[in-house]
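Hey,
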Amino acid sequence: MNKYELHNKLIDLQELQRKVDSHIKLWNKTHIETALCEEFHEWYNAIGFFKDWKQNKTPKEKQLDELADCLAFALSLMNNDKQVYSVDRCAFVLKRIENKNHKKAMINEIETGYLFNKRVGNTVYIQSTEFAIELILDIALIYYSLEELFEAYIKKSMVNIQRQKEGY
């Protein structure tokens, strides 16, 4: 996937997120930020690097489902701020992940828990939402693929729309 394809895909996913959000009766930015932070922790719990005692790891589909939830809340925040993720930032993420030192540092931050103990709160509550998108894309590029993440997001969005229609 090149920077233009990634940019266009994120725009398409933001439009889908607008449809999901249109079914929400009361949209509250603070609650969405809290949900995004919580979903990062749910992904981390699902991947379970700290669970040395656990013999059966969480299936990849469940892990992707949690990461897709992160993407949903981040896209919702981007929509609220009337922002789009720029082509330049797409290029930056795709180029940066090729850097072995960056990838190694990200893996270390994730697998030692530093990312979730120190960085997620800052990323969600202080920095612009673009940083949360970058973190989600980095995670996908390290542990899965962008295509797998986007497929999981689309699947989960359909479930979320149905849930909202049913009064979830």
